[in-house]
Write a sequence for this structure.
């Protein structure tokens, strides 16, 4: 979704800057002039490498305030917006200071002679090193922020989107794998899904997006963790249809009554979105049910449930107006 620059640690940035500086060359009519010009060139190259790299980090991150609502909320869940702004501001400040230090020492070295030239170059290197070290923690934070940004899936607003929701470990990821190109991680313990992941379904000329989301617990919004809030963001901003999975076997580790309370909440909050309620793990339960059942283990009910859902799905048109799609 986001094309972000690779972020270097403080030490790697200094290695890059001084490595480039070591390759600098200079000319002059005599040895003293060449030494002066070489020192100036090395400080310039090192300073420009630091300035340009840090400035690239600042301009390379998208403005969260300008992102579409889903991405803005999802990124805000993954990365503290206020802290990210502070880290980027620190990188911008360091870029400006590196430029000032470079300009100052190039001028001073240009006026120096003899042993003072080498001393000023080392002093400039020391100032630049201290500056980069000062924002070391900010660079580390930007590295983590970049990883979070890169986990955000690219959702096409023109393609109908199905969101798979429910309690942890009810079989959401298995369902997405069974019906689409999505390959979310699967394991037999809660909260395996750490973030939303995207798959696609092809039906003739129609294409659908299907989002696997982290499990949501039946509890107040203020108590929900970052993973749960990612699922809520997907339901709120991009769902044209919802598959809500129940696990009547309760092998997920949560009672069916709690799962039903969450279903009631989702139906109340997203009453304008078509919701297909499906019971998963049909191979583990034999009692009758008013809901369709699926078993991704045996394949039972998967094609029927998918067709039922696709027939319900609508795509949001301009200003939120539904636009019918082919069943």
């Amino acid at each position: 979704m986001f094309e972000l620059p690779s972020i270097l640690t403080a030490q790697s940035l200094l290695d890059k800057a001084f490595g480039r500086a070591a390759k600098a060359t200079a000319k002059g009519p005599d040895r003293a002039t060449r030494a002066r010009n070489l020192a100036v060139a090395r400080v310039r190259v090192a300073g420009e490498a630091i300035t340009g790299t840090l400035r690239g980090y600042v301009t390379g991150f998208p403005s969260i305030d300008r992102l579409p609502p889903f991405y803005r909320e999802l990124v805000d869940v993954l990365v503290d917006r206020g802290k990210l702004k502070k880290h980027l501001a620190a990188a911008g400040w360091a870029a400006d200071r590196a430029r000032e230090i470079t300009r100052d020492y190039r001028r001073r070295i240009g006026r120096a002679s003899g042993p003072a030239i080498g001393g000023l170059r080392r002093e400039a290197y020391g100032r630049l090193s201290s500056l980069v070290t000062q924002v070391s923690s900010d660079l580390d934070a930007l590295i983590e922020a970049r990883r979070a940004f890169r986990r955000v899936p690219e959702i096409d607003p023109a393609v109908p989107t199905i969101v798979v929701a429910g309690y942890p470990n009810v079989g959401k990821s298995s369902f997405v794998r069974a019906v689409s190109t999505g390959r979310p991680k699967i394991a037999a313990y809660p909260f395996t899904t750490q973030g939303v992941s995207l798959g696609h379904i092809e039906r003739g000329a129609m294409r659908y997006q299907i989002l696997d989301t982290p499990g949501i617990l039946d509890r107040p919004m203020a108590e929900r963790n970052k993973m749960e809030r990612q699922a809520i963001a997907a339901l709120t901003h991009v769902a044209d249809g919802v598959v809500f999975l129940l696990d009547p076997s309760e092998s997920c580790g949560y009672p069916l009554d709690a799962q039903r309370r969450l279903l009631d909440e989702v139906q109340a909050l997203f009453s304008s979105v078509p919701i297909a309620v499906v019971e998963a793990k049909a191979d583990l339960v034999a009692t009758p049910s008013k809901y369709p059942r699926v078993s991704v283990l045996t394949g039972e009910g998967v094609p029927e449930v998918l067709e039922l859902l696709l027939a319900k799905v609508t795509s949001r048109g301009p200003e939120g107006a539904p636009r019918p799609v082919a069943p």
Observations:
- The first helix runs from residue 10 to 22.
- The domain at 161-324 is CATH 3.40.50.300 (Rossmann fold).
- The mean pLDDT is 83.
- The beta strands are 161-166, 197-203, 206-212, 241-246, 275-279, 314-316, 322-324.
